[in-house]
Every structure is written in structure tokens, then in C-alpha cells.
Amino acid sequence: MVRALALLFALAAAPGLAAWPEKPIKILIGYAPGGSTDVVARLISPKLSERLGQPIVIENKPGGAGDFAAELMLQAPADGYTLMMSTVALHAINPGLYKTQKFHPTNDFTAIALVCSYPMILIGSPQTTFRNPAELKELAAKTPTFYSSSGIGSPGHLSGELLVRALGANIIHVPYKGGSPSVVAIMSGEAQVNFATLPAVVPQIRGGKVRAIALASKERNPAVPDVPTLAELGIADFDVGTWSGIIGPRGVPAEVVQKINAAVAAVVNDPVIKQRLIDEGAEIRLMSPAEFGTFMRAENLRWVKVVKDAGITPQ
User: So what's the pLDDT on residue 121?
Assistant: First the structure.
């Protein structure tokens, strides 16, 4: 009897899943427009819409380094129609920075598709002249110096705190509601230094609107081949980056997850899209849903420890 009921339910559900999607799909972004997560989402969404046969609607919901958007998504049904382009901050950095999140950073989500990763890059205001961390420390000793970030708990915030501790410098954190506003602060001279995600600032670097100082990665990046790593400038083992991936609320049907994952893989492997991502400093990181889930849990363990070791106090 139990098996018969299970089969009946499966048959009833199958037509709907086979037809999915039957309406537009919403993807939430936890940051203001113009940041790397937003850039990646808007780059792949037109082709993803073609693949899935429905419009993709991007909605920016900044706040709490992604936590606010996650809270909104978790209020939606787990049917694949409300998703989120997530980052390392939500699942790995925020749990170490915040005393309480309103959700479990990994268990309350469905890992669907990792898209790419990218390093952080240290940039300076065009109104400044420091060329390396040592000269930045000298600047901070002479005049009030500020570093902007896309918000408390963002990779830029963590990178900035790690740099402040490595230098022993007095550089004050100023959080903004997204990567784009924090970079505008550098362009205007409102803040002097910033750790940005590389894809978000490649155009500004090439246009001379900000000065590229160093990459927070083990190797140089082909998008900015002349920019050294922090290790080359005397700060060893400074490897901080982030990633973009599509997630849903816990319980999204496996068939829907697989359909989205396959569509994302096809879009990212499109030669034009792939080259755009590489040109903007991204590294392609396609995974199966199961692999992405394992990756998220590993990132959580790694970055909670980094936050603790860096001495950053939970808020």
C-alpha cells in the first residue's frame, strides 16, 4: 500500500517537474548592482534564459553581506523559481563574523551550480601615490586612512582586516552597501584603499579610474598580468578570494536542480561567455550539485577558522 501511494505521488509530480520551468525565474543578488556577483549573474542570465525557456529576473537585495537576500529567498517555496547567486561570504565568512544568523549557513540551502571563482585585488584611490603595502603603512601613519568594503562580513572586509593586522597599520574600515559603491568611494577619494573582487574593477583599472596595487592570490591573473601578488610585495600566504554560485532553499527537487546545473554548465562553456569571464579575472569552477555542496561545507570550515585566527570579533 505504501509503495502504491509513493508511486501515485511520483506519477502526479512527474508532469510538473518535466515541464519545469513554466514561469519566470527570480535570482536574488545580496549586493548592490555593479559588484562581481551581479556582473556574473547578468552575464550568464540571457543565455541561461534561452536554455531554460523562461525569463530570468535579477533582483538586487543588498544587506548583511548576502544574509538579507538569503532570508528573503528562504521565505519562498523550494520549487526552483526563487534562487540566489551566492558567495563565500554567506556560507563561510558570515558564520564566523555574526553571532547569530537566521539560518544554517549550509544545511538550509540547496547547492545547485558553482559558476566561477576570482581573487581579491588591492586597489588604491587615484588621489594617492602608494605603490605597495609598506608605502600604504607610511601613508596611514601620516594621515587618516580608510579602506572601503562592500559591507561587514564581505570578503573585502575580511581581506582588509587581514592586511591591517599584517601591516600593524591604523586603517579604518568603512562598509558600503555593495561592491560598486565601495569602489566609487575609491574613485572619488572618499576612501584610500579597497579589496575588490577582480571582475568588478577590471574596467576601472584599465580606464585608470583606480590604481591596481596587488592580487590577494598565489599567482598573477591573466586579466591583469602586470599586477603583482601580495607575496611578491612582501606579504606571504595572503590568499583571499570569493566565488559565485547558484543556490536555492533547502528541498528544491533533484530534477530541477539537475536541469539548472546542466543549463549553467552549457552557458559557462559557451566560448564567448567563458572568454568574457576569463577576461574579467574569473576562474571557471563548474561542479555537480553534490560537489558544490561538499565545496560549500569545506569553505565554511576554512573561513570560520580564518576569521577566528585573524582575531576578528563576531558582531
Answer: 96
Query: According to the 3-state scheme, what is the secondary structure of 163-191?
Result: HHHHHCCCEEEEECCCHHHHHHHHHHCCC
Torsion, Cα 135 140 141 143, to 10 degrees, reads 120
The count of residues in the chain is: 315
Q: Which domains are seen in the chain, by residue range?
A: 25-117+242-309 (3.40.190.150), 119-215 (3.40.190.10)
- Give residue-wise pLDDT tens across range 118-154: 899 999 999 999 999 999 999 999 999 999 998 877 7
What angle, 0 to 180 degrees and rounded to 10, lies between the N-to-C axes of helices 198-206 and 179-188?
30
Instruction: Indicate the helix (H) or strand (E) that contains 81.
Output: none
Q: Measuring CA to CA, how many Å separate 114 from each of 40, 117, 287, 292, 298? A: 11, 9, 6, 6, 14
Residues 248 and 256: their CA atoms lie apart, in Å, by 11
Three-class DSSP labels, 202-251: HHHHHCCCCEEEEECCCCCCCCCCCCCECCCCCCCCCCCEEEEEEEEECC
For 245, other C-beta atoms within 10 Å of its C-beta total: 26
- For the chain of 315 residues, list the mean pLDDT of each consecutive stretch of 10: 44 62 97 87 96 97 90 98 95 85 95 94 96 96 95 84 91 89 96 93 95 94 94 91 95 98 98 92 93 96 82 68
Grid coordinates representing 164? 591591517
Mean pLDDT of the chain: 90
